[in-house]
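Running this now, will post back.
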Amino acid sequence: MVSAIAMSAFDTVAAVVDPEIRVVTIADLGILRDVRVDGERVTVTITPTYSGCPAMDVIRADIRQALGAAGYRDVEVVTTLRPAWSTDWISASGREKLAAAGIAPPGPSGGPVALAIRLRCPRCGSPDTEELSRFGSTACKALWRCRACAEPFDHVKAH
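Update: finished.
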């Protein structure tokens, strides 16, 4: 059984907003892997969306700040790269939030073989889209455009 203290610590960390995609939390993105409370110590385990993600320092600081504000003083944030993060870890709620913000959520990662997909425009829903650049507003997103409504949009890269 999970104690109320451990649940409170988990809920506190789960509410931390991703610094690059401000419409989702680290829990929505599947970056948050575990929160353990052992006496006064809270250990949080996170996995970056990719190993060179520049947002990880901010995420660690935001986790420490959120737990500190909730009264937790002894906080350790552990980063693990195994298993590697997958877009399959994005929650259904996270996918909905991304789409509502005009960011095309990724489809299933498809395992070791990348799937050829046609993205639907998050604004008008048209499948008539094209990739403009493999790199978008952040390294984990690509820039796409809808041919139907001519609007550009970000797409979270599947991995």
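The helical segments are 4-14, 26-29, 56-69, 92-100. More later if anyone needs it.
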